[in-house]
Amino acid sequence: MNPWVLFILIASLGLGTTITFASSHWFLAWMGLEINTLAIIPLMAQHHHPRAVEAATKYFLVQAAAAALMLFAATSNAWMLGEWHIQQLTHPLATAATMISLAMKVGLAPTHLWLPEVLQGLDLTTGLVLSTWQKLAPMALIYQLAPNVDHSLLLIIGLSSAFIGGWGGLNQTQLRKILAYSSIAHMGWMIIVLKYAPTLMLLSLMIYIVMTSTVFMALKTVSSTSLATLATVWTKSPILATITMLTMLSLGGLPPLTGFMPKWMILQELTKQTLPTTATIMALAALLSLFFYLRLCYNMTLTSGPNTNNNKAPWRFKTTTTITPLPIMATMSLMMLPLTPTIMALLT
Predict the structure, then answer these.
(1) Where does the record place the NADH:quinone oxidoreductase/Mrp antiporter transmembrane domain (predicted)?
(2) Residues 154, 148: Cα–Cα separation, whole Å
(3) Tell me: the pLDDT tens digits for 172-192?
């Protein structure tokens, strides 16, 4: 892709997200989301592969439907109550429709079916953008909308996302689909606590972005996109394989890694809100996700690829990729648990 075209598209991605962040009017927020959508579609289809074009087409259709539903809901609210302000969306029908449209945009269950298929058709770099940056603007709107959304709707979306994200990833062999179901499950954890402690949602989103970025960059470095190719990672780069394995366990929420922090605090908050049953169900749903993370770790570190030579390979390709952000992201993904009190003090 031409560098100037790439610069314009990346700048448009930043502009769309910034417009949505800064808006207080639903029409302006909708416009920012549309700029975001139109900017990432050329990035999706840049390799001219049939799967990439199919993914871009599916993404465009789903995002267009979600945007139309959101605009219809905002217009209905303005028609009935005379308010376009984001935090004044109070009509129950308009609020529910807007929440469903935003859930469709980020891939929350039960509107999640497009996400694994779209992510599977993309390369790892564009998949990283879709899994992290593209969630910022819709989540900012969900954060502002949450006080007016019915509690039962958020509970249903959160629980179903956590379970579907766990169940869906159990029988997958493609890493991008596994990361898509991981995204669905993590979004469910964020939504379930949004009504009670919005700062915990921000904390979970921040840590999810750091951990997912680490995994995508590590897989990009070792050129691995399926479960079968993970077995060769250990012989090529043992240190990177170890870091990736620990990051997977952090995504699963095992202590003493960073990913334990949001799950621990969300379960604590749900218990404080006299919702022990919901907390128990969410903890059980986390075990489903943990299973496929452990399966990835097993394939990466406890198996070896087919090899007729028992000695180490006497040669290595010299890497030509720049991985400067990877060590920083990996350190944050693994070692931030002792900083929990400081982070919560900054967020509150």
Answers:
(1) 23-288
(2) 11
(3) 889 999 999 999 999 999 999
